[in-house]
Predict the structure of Multicopper oxidase family protein.
Amino acid sequence: MNRKVIGSILIVILLAIGYFISPFYNNEGYNTGSQGGISILEVGAQEVGDRPVKTYELTAQETEWELGDGKQVNAWTYNGTVPGEALRVTKGDFVRVHLKNELDVPVTIHWHGVILPNKMDGVPGLTQDAVEPGESFTYEFIANDPGTYWYHSHQHSAEQVDRGLYGSLVIEEKEPEYEQDEFFILDEWTTGSGDQGSFNMGGMMQGHMSGDGEMDTKQLYDTFTVNGKSGDAIEPLVMKEGETARLRFVNAGYQQHQLMFPEDSIKVIANDAEEVSGEKGSAQVVEIAPGERIDVAYIKQSDEPAVIAENPNVENAGGMQIPVVSNENAVVQDDVTVPVSSAMADGTSYGSEELLFKETPDPDVTYDMDLSMGMNMGEGMSFQINGQTFPETPPIKVEEGDIVKVNIKNEGRMNHPMHLHGHRFQVASKNGTSYDNPIVKDMIHVKPGEEYVVYFEADNKGEWLFHCHDNNHADLGMITIVDYKGVYSPFEIGGENQPE
């Protein structure tokens, strides 16, 4: 057999191998298709057993929604309201949610922060096919971890979350510590000449040049809301003097918010569903990043009306003021002042009560995550991880049981709240300085020039997103995947499946 024949045979063999392998891996090595191994549909199964079952029906539908102050928007909603129906379950419950789609676009539900089986994570193209108009899908999981969570669409979320497809989820302790427990979802809306869900490239460029890490969102939105209402339409918080309530805050928008409280009225008690350690942290201002959850214990100090309000130095702050009154008929006078203080807490100000690692572990996998802004040929601006945009970003390849170290560095000029699905990580250091009290979270807000080191254990098999929760940035590429060896996703990214 001569060399040409041997060469031809080798080429045919290589082409055949490529033919059989190519459906199973995309350009970056994410496990897709149906090659050897276990489908994500077969891992992490959870059975009802003898648990209580909490069942909900959520319908995605179009709704004309009144924000208040005479402003109305065409919203996309779960069950016709912004936010969607409030879900409250108890630790140990089996949660069953039937999603029906009455919109004319595909949708999903992602259970933000909840540790659950991969197939229930709600990411189109990775953990399921997007739910088409007129179709339905049922999500099931055990509510194992008490805390503050929220749910939202992960299908083209830069638009769908922006239009109102989100709601609250609380997993309560079997014996709640606080009698009064309230949920507040913060957001921003476009009600002027712009369109909700349309990214502001001009603002992004301005911010990139000026160094303002939020110029893109500040330029885009003109109305702030609390629980879907703005200004005088915001429902008051009703409390008597001396009472204490647990207030759960979620930022569903793409701009950070600095909430100001009356002096000495709060203690931060939890971040991202993790209780803070030791003496609860006291602050007067709490900064909440996009996608982040922060809980506070709030004490009503007198019978006089008060407000919890956005930093008044921020444009449009007047729309984000929560009245605190002693009876629901009380009127908050215009002369109630918004407190101003430099004593500020954010999502890394206080350590966590229960750590993932008592000491800094030796990692099995180390991943350097460089966040930056760049240009895609023919497509304009992009947000990149290690110089690439999704789905070409390099994955974090792990095996079950691995300890994973991620060095996150923001080399750009925009803020990037980075959120990990299906796991919690321990924040070990910031800008090279170790925390005396490490923090356990699933979202870390990385501002320009900042570096964080986080650790997590690969203990939940599947294919999981790690992405920027300014969903406009995710839409323009800032996503990677934690890719477990030995499992694959049978779904395909692209077409009707848009996980950004």
Summary: The domain at 53-175 is CATH 2.60.40.420 (Immunoglobulin-like). The chain has three domains: 53-175, 187-345, 365-488. The chain has five helices and 34 strands. The longest helix spans residues 3-21.
